[in-house]
Design brief:
- By secondary structure, the chain is an all-alpha fold.
- It has a domain of 26 residues.
- The radius of gyration is 39 Å and the shape is elongated.
- The protein starts with 11 loop residues before the first helix and ends in a 6-residue tail after the last helix.
């Protein structure tokens, strides 16, 4: 099975020349019709109102959030908790000694 022959690639200047030559062969009436069709198919700028609405809603939400922090400032805790100076770790062993039995029977303890 043979491959199809691909045409040689032209450089950029040659392609510009071909485009200019093709434009000269198109009649002015056809160019006018193409130009009017292109402008008619262009999207309208109707999304501008959506951005204003999104910006306004974001500003209102930010102002409401800021006002809620100033109206009710967070209160400080009434009494600070003090950690005990003595570490009593004996209750850890009293809670579940089966864990240590299980660890002793598996190879996980040696890893």
């Amino acid at each position: 099975m043979s491959r199809p022959v691909t045409p040689p690639l032209h450089d950029d200047a040659a392609l510009h020349a071909l485009h200019a030559q093709a434009l000269q062969q198109v009649s002015p009436a056809t160019l006018a019709r193409l130009r009017s069709a292109r402008h008619a198919a262009a999207p309208r700028r109707s999304r501008a109102h959506g951005w204003w609405m999104a910006t306004a809603c974001s500003a209102v939400a930010a102002l409401a959030l800021g006002y809620s922090f100033t109206a009710n400032p967070p209160s400080a805790p009434a009494t600070p908790t003090v950690a005990s100076a003595v570490d009593d770790s004996s209750d850890v062993l009293d809670e579940n000694p089966d864990l240590y039995v299980w660890l002793g029977t598996t190879d996980l303890a040696m890893e």
